[in-house]
Design goal:
heterodimer, A: alpha/beta, nine-stranded mixed β-sheet, globular, disordered C terminus, B: 361 residues, ten-stranded mixed β-sheet
């Protein structure tokens, strides 16, 4: 790495170059006061420059024993961690099965589909299911719902929470003492209070809220799920310069991935569809372009298969591509073969 | 929020000056650039850029609410405009929701404007009669608004009210009709409306029809332009709806469904779907494309087949997919069956207009 790649402001960089400091080694044994005098800058600025130099050199040098890089973990440790990780159930057993248990934490999952297929329904279902207490097999965490289109309806969230609680109590009819206390927590109002709702009206606000999430999540440490519904809407409307849009989206997705790893939560992005000209005809594909499709860890496409709604895993590093049918019922997202009396199809 | 001035955000003055010197005045300007670009532009180091961006983001970010608070707010403000069609109101959990975009789409002559006229009347009625007791803004792009017909609907549906002296006039005075002739005029009226909606107690906004605006602009012919001319108006309409918590009803036209329209995902491969070919003659699809379809919150499809007309709830976060047969009478639209017919699968999105006997019915 040379001087031109250091994260310092351009005016200081040009001063360094004009004074003849072209490589890092030339700065390795200079004191801050000398540098300040040479460049005619303030002492603090010279200290900053030298700190930037030392940061880059230490990360490059391999004088750390046993070749183990600070901050890395071994694959075995990661495996043990992953096995202990709980997943967020989607409500449909078949879909959970092909996902390897449900939506994974520490990963960014993108869900896309045509209008009316159930993306918002899935989003609200996940926001409810993440709150299922640990004793009942859930994560016991809260959810952040970032709504860019105004599709979140509180009444529907109420119905879905009600349906979820009903099914839990049906599945775990035990009346033992340890369950009694968490039974009290299973109230619809508690579930609704555990969803933090942001309504975003422009792409600037979308960028702002994702930047602000780091502070928010530090304050509210029990959030285990962040949903953005939908990540596309404002970016399709107001952006004229597509190259800039790609750069901004790239920054957003990096930040989301960092948040998911740092706070050990799942990030779910809902996306719209558009048509793309490939192989001589127009095909349906998820919006925001090809570069965006690389940004997410997992990708699920919801589509119509005849008269059935189906979820197809298009991209995942850990599970194979597979399809699972699901239903949207009065109680939320459910599987085709629910144990209960035929789920009344909404 | 996007146009919030950086100078008013409480950043340290030296930092504010640097931003304004480079003409980055609003949050939108600052947040649209990646951090490294900002660093180069402003000539300050990266840590300072990061903390500035974090402060700007915090100031620009809207406040959050919990789901519970949202629900309580909804319960307090009623939340729905009842259409007085019991089956439809049940399916929509109360009626046309406040703060969301409801779309009515269907072939011409099927009854969309009739529905809108009745809604306008219902919103203007005093609360004791089930109305919202407010003003209505009716944006009429195709010159279809007929006040005579509206009074006729009023007299048919609420005979006891409309015979009262002067009430018909009072109702009619609450309905404000505007006729923009281009998208820019439409956008201008929307801008002005944003402030006056609350001041003037407007309780309903109807745009009949929005597709006509796009058609005028597309007169040069090429509908293949990927960027819809309605982009700015769309998000603005939605934000007006939410900001003032009024229902917004928009009507849309249909166009014929060519075989190119049956798009498939790449992973599905190429399938010759012969079953679709015989449907394509009578098959229609909503105008304005898939981007618009994503943007509306509720879509009600008006269609005709097997000798009847139907209202289908095609896209709604809170309703099952049902269809209601209806007729248009002197008192407006009446449902023939309040229970609704359940429609399975992707049929709910199809729009049919079989036969020309709509006119003779």
């Amino acid at each position: 790495m040379e001087i031109s790649n250091l994260p310092i402001s351009p005016s200081i960089r040009s001063k360094l170059l004009s004074k003849g400091y072209t490589s890092l080694s030339s700065l390795s044994s200079i004191s801050p006061s000398f540098l300040a005098q040479e460049l005619s800058v303030k002492l603090e600025e010279a200290v900053e420059v030298l700190r930037a130099v030392s940061d880059t050199t230490t990360s490059k040098s391999a004088h750390i024993p046993y070749g183990i890089i600070p901050g890395a973990v071994t694959a075995w440790d990661m495996l043990s961690e992953e096995q202990m990780q709980r997943h967020i159930s989607t409500g449909c057993e078949d879909l959970d099965a092909i996902l390897g248990g449900g939506i994974h934490c520490k990963e960014v999952t993108e869900v896309g589909g045509v209008p009316g297929i159930g993306k918002t329904q899935l989003g609200i279902q996940l926001a409810v299911n993440v709150q299922i207490p640990v004793e009942y097999g859930g994560l016991g965490g809260k959810a952040v719902y970032i709504d860019t289109e105004g599709s979140f309806m509180a009444e529907r969230a109420y119905q879905i929470a009600e349906g979820c609680i009903y099914d839990i109590l049906d599945k775990f009819p035990s009346n033992s003492r340890e369950f009694l206390s968490c039974k009290e927590r299973l109230q619809v109002n508690n579930f609704l209070a555990g969803i933090f709702y942001f309504r975003i009206c422009s792409y600037t606000e979308q960028i702002a809220v994702i930047n602000y999430l780091e502070n928010f999540l530090t304050e509210h440490g029990d959030v285990k799920l962040v949903i953005i519904d939908s990540v596309t809407f404002h970016f399709r409307q107001d952006f004229d310069d597509l190259a800039q849009r790609t750069r901004v989206l790239g920054g957003l997705s990096l930040r989301l991935m960092k948040l998911s790893k740092m706070f050990n939560l799942a990030v779910v992005l809902l996306n719209q569809v558009t048509t793309k000209f490939t192989d001589g005809s127009f095909q349906l594909t998820l919006a925001l372009g090809d570069s965006w499709s690389h940004s997410c860890t997992n990708r699920i496409i919801l589509h119509w298969n005849g008269n059935e709604r189906c979820a197809y895993i298009e991209k995942s590093p850990s599970v194979p591509s597979a399809s699972a049918p699901y239903l949207v019922t009065g109680k939320g997202i459910r599987g085709i073969n629910s144990n209960f009396k035929r789920a009344r199809i909404m | 929020m996007a146009n919030k001035l950086i100078s008013q955000m409480g950043l340290p003055p030296s930092l504010s000056h640097v931003f304004s010197a480079r003409n980055i005045l609003t949050a939108k300007d600052a947040l649209s650039l990646p951090e490294t670009d900002l660093m180069t532009l402003l000539d300050i180091d990266i840590a300072l850029v990061r903390s500035a961006v974090a402060s700007i983001s915090e100031a620009t970010c809207p406040p959050f609410q919990t789901g519970l608070a949202l629900l309580e707010e909804k319960m307090k403000s009623g939340g729905h405009l009842s259409t007085l069609l019991p089956g439809l109101d049940n399916a929509l959990c109360g009626g046309i929701p406040f703060g969301a975009l409801t779309e009515l789409v269907g072939p011409s002559g099927i009854g969309k404007t009739q529905f809108c006229l009745k809604l306008a009347l219902l919103a203007a009625l005093p609360e004791c009669y089930g109305g919202l007791n407010g003003r209505v803004i009716y944006i009429d792009t195709e010159s279809k608004f007929s006040s005579r017909r509206m009074i006729e609907i009023g007299e048919g549906s609420f005979p006891q009210i409309f015979r009262l002296q002067g009430l018909a006039q009072k109702m009619a005075e609450r309905i404000i009709v505007t006729r923009p002739t281009s998208i820019s005029e439409f956008n201008d009226s929307l801008q002005q409306m944003k402030l006056t909606l609350l001041q003037n107690e407007v309780k309903l906004l109807i745009v009949d029809s929005i597709a006509a605006l796009v058609c005028w602009d597309n007169e040069k012919g090429t509908i293949s332009s990927r960027q819809s001319p309605l982009r700015g108006s769309l998000s603005f309409l939605k934000s007006i709806a939410e900001f003032s918590q009024v229902p917004v009803v928009v009507t849309n036209q249909v166009r014929s469904h060519s075989s190119d329209d049956t798009f498939h995902y790449i992973f599905k491969g190429h399938r010759k779907d012969t079953s679709n070919s015989e449907r394509s003659e009578s098959h229609l699809t909503a105008a304005l494309g898939i981007q618009w379809a994503h943007a509306v919150t509720i879509r009600l499809i008006f269609e005709a087949h097997s000798g009847h007309r139907f209202i289908k709830v095609a896209k709604s976060p809170i309703s099952p997919p049902v269809a209601f047969p209806f007729v248009v009478e002197s008192s407006g639209i009446t449902l023939l069956n309040q229970e609704g017919i359940s429609v399975a699968g992707s049929e709910i999105n199809a729009i049919r207009c079989k036969g020309c006997n709509i006119l003779t019915q």
